[in-house]
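Late entry, evening session. Most of the bench is empty. Finally got around to the prediction I had been postponing all week. Sequence below, unchanged from the version circulated by S.P.
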Amino acid sequence: MERVAQGVYLAEDAWPDELHLLCLSNSRIVFSHKTALMLHGLMEREPKTMSVTVKAGYNASHLRRKEIRVYQVKPEVYDLGIVEVQTSYGNTVRAYDMDRTICDILRSKDTMDVQVFRYAMKEYMDSTQKNLHHLMEYAKRFRVESAMRTYAELM
């Protein structure tokens, strides 16, 4: 057995699931942005760095040292859209739902690769699991309703 974090051990013959291991050692994180896109199948390739969201005020310096992209949000919107999803290894982790993730990437569109953004929007609009009502509720809450409406109409 190999110790990978405090209280977290990995069998020598096991494949490490980085997302699951990170969740086990950091219970307050929620996978978001590009990592959530990947978990929902809205991204063509695996992102170079993991993205997580935490409540504002959370000391995330240990995550940043691991080169994890950390987003901080107000406590009143932190819980919006949290779901449990399975990693490619079959482990369950917490991430934002597809609708919240689309709003998150729209909010940070200026720092994102245009190809990734377009692909995610196209795949979301083609998905049978999308919930446009939730999408517009989240967009209103995050003050991107006008931009979201424009993208939704174009798609």
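Two things to note before I forget:
Residues 114-126 form the longest helix (13 residues).
Residues 2-154 form a domain with the Beta Polymerase; domain 2 fold (CATH 3.30.460).
Will write this up properly tomorrow.
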